[in-house]
Automatic annotation (TrEMBL):
Protein name according to UniProt: CAF1B/HIR1 beta-propeller domain-containing protein
Keyword Cell wall biogenesis/degradation: no
SUPFAM superfamilies, alphabetized: WD40 repeat-like (SSF50978)
Entry annotated with the keyword DNA repair: yes
Any one Gene Ontology cellular component term annotated for this protein: CAF-1 complex
Subcellular location, record wording: Nucleus
WD repeat start and end residues: 50-91, 111-140
Sorted UniProt keywords: Chromatin regulator, DNA damage, DNA repair, Nucleus, Repeat, WD repeat
Length: 140
């Protein structure tokens, strides 16, 4: 598997288990993308490429419920993603030719406030808040 165009992977996170859903892993890296994978009995299958960041993605974290995914990086932007189960995945292949997108993930919110790279983030236990840390010496 070519995880991120053979570029560095900076973050990886398992989705908390959701009933009747596959076990998902999110990865983020130097190629400016977030990728969603299905993990099943030591097998990995590509599900979706999320490509809204303009620079490297340093951190990716599923919310406590597993319904949301937050990503942040060198573009000082936080993107909160949500899977859109109603929309059919477009017949678009991933740039690394891993396969076509199987799931559609949409940017539910785009948050800005930091002036420089974001290196870490954490969800509150109720999925209502995200705190982020940045090289601009702030936590928001």
């Amino acid at each position: 598997i070519s995880w991120h165009a053979k570029e560095a992977i900076f973050s990886i996170d398992f989705q908390p288990k959701i009933t009747n859903q596959p076990t998902r892993i999110a990865t983020a890296g130097l190629d400016n993308n977030v990728r969603i994978w299905e993990y099943k009995k030591n097998e990995i299958r590509f599900l979706s490429n999320l490509s809204r960041h303009d620079k490297a993605v340093n951190i990716v974290r599923f919310s406590k419920s597993g319904l949301y995914l937050a990503s942040a990086g060198d573009d000082a932007t936080i993107i909160v993603w949500k899977m859109n189960e109603k929309e059919e995945a477009p017949n678009i292949f991933d740039p690394d030719n891993i396969g076509k997108n199987v799931e559609v993930w949409c940017a539910a919110k785009i948050l800005r406030g930091h002036l420089e790279d974001i290196n870490d983030l954490s969800w509150s236990s109720d999925d209502q808040h995200i705190v982020t840390g940045s090289v601009d010496h702030t936590a928001i």
